[in-house]
Amino acid sequence: MKIAVAIPCYKVRQQVLEVLASIPASVTRIYAVDDACPEQSGAWIQQHCQDPRVRVLYNPQNQGVGGAVITAYRQAIADEMDVVVKIDGDGQMDPRLLPQFVRPIGEGRADYTKGNRFFRLESLKDMPRIRLFGNAMLSFLSKLSCGYWGVMDPTNGYTAVHVAVLRELPLDKLERRYFFETDMLFRLNTLRAVVKDIPMDALYADEESNLKIGTVLPEFMAKHLSRLVRRYGYNYWLRDFNVGSLYSVLGLLFLLSGGLFGLSHWIESLGTGEPATSGTVMLAALPILVGVQLLIAFLHYDITSAPVEPLHPLLIGEVEGV
């Protein structure tokens, strides 16, 4: 396979040369993307890196990590690479792990692999507590909105993807900044691509994160809700109508009818001072219980319907006329 590495370069001038020197020899091409870096990291790399595999790409305007990676993705497609691995230029990701990310794709067991810093409990001791809590919450939201219930650490930027799958993605619609990794998972789920986690440890140095929790939290919540609604519409109404569709609709109807019936009689009891009869309570409680059970059944169906058959072998077969 022809393996390419995408390295977004924005304010990583002190670390990026060491990262480039650590890229394994099995890699065919290295795309270092200068995302309008104020430190002129692209020129710095061209002056001090002699590796012939390195190609510096420039974004005329800063587009965020997603925009930098998409620039590399487009070049990898044009250069007819097979797999693209994304590694940050700040030294927090060990390039020696690259074969572990590529292997499941090369063996036809996955279309997309991503790092998981939660796999080993020992690796969490060095993670700042605010990052640990934030990533745990984002992982749960990502499971709901993206549908990959078996993966954790959705914001992990150490990823690998087969180029055949990239060709099917609407790269121009992908998020360009902090929501990029999560949006990738959402888009991959719409293609029914197989995603696998790769255990890894993260290295934390003295660099300061540009992500401000108070600023991005409302934006992240809104985007997760948007992806959840769209995924539900795609998978359960537009592309297919299945038992999960029935579970969800009937569950909501029972839950709402029972809740509204109980609420109306509770308000009536407050006005008259007379307690509701046991029969009235049962008429309110029973639909709620049935609705909750149906929604649990829908959740179970959603969890078990995650993609299991890799997509890229089929795509390659179509290209080759198989």
What would your notes on this structure say?
By secondary structure, this protein is an alpha/beta fold. It has 2 domains: about 5-210, Spore Coat Polysaccharide Biosynthesis Protein SpsA, Chain A (Alpha-Beta Complex), CATH 3.90.550; about 240-305. It is about 50% helix and about 10% strand. It has 11 helices and 7 strands. The protein has a 7-stranded mixed sheet, sandwiched between helices. Strand 1, helix 1 (about 15-20) and strand 2 (about 30-35) form a beta-alpha-beta unit. Helix 5 (about 130-145) packs parallel to helix 8, helix 7 (about 180-190) packs parallel to helix 8 (about 215-240) and helix 9 runs antiparallel to helix 10 (about 280-305). The relative contact order is 0.11. The model has no long low-confidence stretch (mean pLDDT about 90).
Question: Layout of SSEs?
Answer:
Blueprint (H helix, E strand, L loop, with lengths): L2 E7 L3 H9 L7 E7 L5 H8 L5 E6 L4 H15 L4 E4 L11 H9 L5 E5 L12 H18 L12 E4 H4 L13 H12 L3 E5 L13 H26 L4 H30 L5 H27 L7 H8 L3
Parallel strand pairs: 1-2, 1-4, 2-3, 5-7
Antiparallel strand pairs: 4-6, 5-6
Helix pairs in contact: 5-8, 7-8, 9-10
